[in-house]
Design goal:
Blueprint (H helix, E strand, L loop, with lengths): L4 H16 L4 H11 L5 H13 L4 H14 L1 H5 L11 H28 L4 H15 L2 H18 L4 H26 L2 H33 L2 H8 L2 H4 L19 H4 L1 H4 L12 H10 L3 E5 L5 E4 L27 H13 L4 E8 L2 E11 L5 E10 L1 H4 L20
Antiparallel strand pairs: 1-2, 1-5, 3-4, 4-5
Helix pairs in contact: 1-2, 1-3, 3-10, 4-9, 6-7, 6-10, 7-9, 8-9, 8-11, 9-10
Length: 408
């Protein structure tokens, strides 16, 4: 008997509810095989979104999403991976997955050698340090998903699976840092244990992308959506592979402006009234700070595309809810700031952090009109490392003085 889409989805949801209630994985796999002939990654993603919409916490979906895939793995394994042409954003992400799989295999060989004692410990750690630097490029892969692909899925009403994946990205980032610390300590046992753990996380994410995320995205997004996904690739960069060709092939010179009708019209979304759009853009992109503007509805309207942003941004964040632009672990802080700004209880919030040897100052400002009505918030981030080191005074122009090594 062929089941209609609604009946199949209800069966899938019942199976997942039982899984979350502690049901036996093997029994649920058998139940799935008996009731449903096949299921697509897109159907799994849609089912997870409906469960979240019905009240299942995203944290619970995240905790058991590996089991979701396991229950349906026989059906997913039998399906052909989505095929896209070179230059298409999914083709690029899939190529990066193939590259990371090869890199993970090499790292595992080194870890196995360290564990077995078949390689010199010092040489093995040195090799691991180099491979870890290479593995760190996975950040570019995740940023393209978070900043470009996820916003388009959110626009289609699918945000739950994306948030779950983002949280796992953050776990992988944290565990890569743990592996770096283990290398610094020189503890071979800790290196092996931590290394195998994070490598498995990375490969599990590859599986979720190939089996669930990519098919779901291909089903939901149209050509215009994919053009918008494509616009941020060059800014973020590519992990392990050469820059992707232009896409669609018929538009070799396609840019972010060409993909965005609002950009073609020259609209920037700021109302100063006295400067041309070109002048506003020049001014904001030459300030020594990163600026992001969020309106009173928590929608991102603008960010300054400075040459060296502290925190990556791409055109995919425009029109996105600011809550979806932050990792799940910092969402409570973001919500608290916005709530206090909207209520008029606070006008500023301030943080400072150490980031890769730089001292970063981050400030948030509530924006209010002449009548005091809340009109949004401004995020301003600045690398103040050099500023903190200033001493004494400089009252004269200093262009002709020879610079010391490393001095700006």
């Amino acid at each position: 008997m062929t089941l209609d889409a609604k009946t199949k989805k209800n069966i899938l949801k019942d199976i997942i509810r039982d899984l979350h209630a502690g049901g036996d994985v093997g029994a649920l796999q058998a139940r799935f095989a008996a009731l449903v002939k096949d299921v697509s990654g897109a159907e799994i993603g849609a089912m997870e979104q409906e469960l979240i919409d019905e009240g299942l916490p995203e944290t619970e979906v995240r905790r058991l999403c590996d089991l979701h895939v396991k229950v349906f793995e026989s059906s997913l394994d039998a399906q052909t991976a989505p095929q896209t042409e070179p230059g298409h954003p999914l083709h690029t992400l899939a190529e990066e997955n193939r590259a990371v799989a090869a890199l993970v295999a090499e790292v595992r060989r080194v870890l196995d050698g360290l564990k077995a004692g078949s390689v010199d410990p010092a040489a093995g750690r040195a090799r691991m340090a180099g491979l870890l630097e290479d593995l760190a490029q996975v950040e570019k892969h995740y940023l393209k998903k978070e900043n470009q692909l996820f916003p388009r899925l959110e626009a289609k009403g699918v945000s739950g699976p994306s948030k779950v994946m983002w949280a796992v990205h953050d776990d992988i980032r944290a565990h890569l840092k743990d592996l770096r610390r283990a290398l610094d300590l020189g503890d071979a046992e800790l290196i092996v244990r931590t290394g195998h753990w994070v490598l498995q996380e990375i490969m599990d994410m590859v599986g979720k992308e190939e089996k669930v995320l990519f098919p779901m995205a291909l089903e939901l997004l149209d050509a215009g959506d994919w053009a918008r996904v494509k616009t941020g690739e060059e800014e973020i960069g590519y992990a392990w592979i050469p820059p992707a060709p232009a896409w669609p092939p018929s538009s070799p010179g396609r840019t972010a402006a060409a993909a965005d009708p609002g950009a073609r019209s020259g609209a920037i979304g700021l109302d100063t009234g006295r400067l041309t759009p070109e002048q506003i853009d020049l001014m904001l992109t030459h300030l020594p700070v990163d600026i992001s503007y969020v309106d009173e509805n928590d929608t991102v309207l603008y960010y300054s595309a400075t040459p060296e942003r502290i925190f990556p941004r791409t055109p995919g964040v425009i029109g996105r809810k600011v809550q979806n632009c932050h990792p799940p672990k910092s969402l409570d802080v973001v919500e608290r700031i916005l709530k206090a700004f909207r209520a008029g209880e606070r006008d500023t919030a301030e943080f400072w952090i150490d980031l890769q040897g730089k001292f970063i100052h981050i400030r948030y400002f509530a924006l209010r009109d002449a009548a005091g009505a809340y009109k949004g918030s401004l995020e301003v981030s600045q690398d103040v490392t050099a500023i903190r080191g200033l001493r004494g005074e400089r009252r004269l122009l200093d262009w002709d003085r020879p610079r010391a090594d490393g001095e700006v």
